[in-house]
Amino acid sequence: MAKLRWLDRYLGHLLLSQVTRDVIDAIAERKTRESSPSNANRYLALIRAILRRARDEWNWLESIPKVRLFREPKGRIRFLSPEEARRLLDELPLHLREMAQFALATGLRQRNVSFLRWEQVDMARRVAWIHPDQAKAGRAIGVPLNESAVAVLRRRLGKDNAHVFTYEGKPVARCSTKAWKAALERAGIERTFRWHDLRHTWASWHVQRGTPLQELMELGGWASFEMVLRYAHLAAEHLRGAACRIDDTFLSQTENPQRVRAV
Question: How much is the pLDDT for 74?
């Protein structure tokens, strides 16, 4: 909603047919000066989504202008070590601690954890599910529950009849609160660490422990294999054999100093 309110200043007086490439480029320039190219991209992506829906679903437009996004540098994936995760869980208030532990155990996105209902959980079969309209990719997700996830659910039994995670009787819609940032500081973790980075942590732990990327894609409910390739560099064990093929050549030189040319 905040993005729509900001865009309304520049688009609210225009017809859809008047939203031209020049108009969009001007908005991109303003938002970049105000914040950053990466933040401007979030607004441009919203404009693009609205225009595409107006053309493809509502048939209000025959054609739409191309929305050019700024190129963003690919940053490092931030994930917690097990020790960092333990420190953070120890510092979080109880309601956030339970949610964070469940996120680390399942890889579910924050909204899927926040609004998880008991009717979506089968404790006997140790599985939960996310409905298509709740999933980012628009596809249902089956969530196998490991021991850590089941332990959290058992502690939550009887707390609320409808939702698994609540605080003062309501689902916790926002997790990146002052309490979250304060816990990060006490745990010695940079305050830029986001709740969504718990999902990156879950995926990174899986890959580091040998989970194949194809299985990770299914576990995480990603729509494309490209989305999980960001974690591929954490699983280089399968290349160890290839890396060792030059060992003989290297060692034969270092073990026979007479054969090494003096500099």
Answer: 67
Catalytic residue selected from 195, 202, 205, 222: 222
Exactly one of 156, 199, 200, 206 is catalytic; name it: 199
State the catalytic residue, choosing from 181, 194, 196, 230. Answer: 196
Contacts of 185 (CB under 8 A, 6+ apart): 191
Residue 263: the pLDDT is 46
Instruction: Give me the pLDDT at residue 253, please.
Output: 58
Per the DSSP assignment, residues forming a β-bridge with 117 are: 163
Whether residues 47 and 115 fall in one domain: no
Active site residue 68: no
136, 139, 154, 191: the catalytic one is: 136
Give catalytic status of residue 5 as yes or no: no
Number of domains in the chain: 2
Whether 195 sits among the annotated catalytic residues: the reply is: no
CA 17 to chain centre: 35
Per the structure, the complete domain to which residue 38 belongs is given by 2-56
Whether residues 184 and 230 fall in one domain: yes
Q: Looking at the structure, do residues 100 and 8 belong to the same domain, yes or no?
A: no
Summarize pLDDT for 60-75 with one digit per residue, the tens.
999 999 999 988 766 6
Of the residues 31, 48, 109, 163, which is catalytic? 109
- Let me know if 136 is a catalytic residue: yes
Q: Residue 216 belongs to what H/E stretch?
A: helix 213-220
For residue 247, what pLDDT band results from cuts at 50, 70 and 90? confident
Is residue 69, in this structure, part of any structural domain at all?
Answer: no
Same domain? 89 vs 50? no
d(CA 190, CA 88): 11
CATH code for the domain of 220 = 1.10.443.10
In the numeric block, which tokens belong to residue 95? Answer: 């309601």
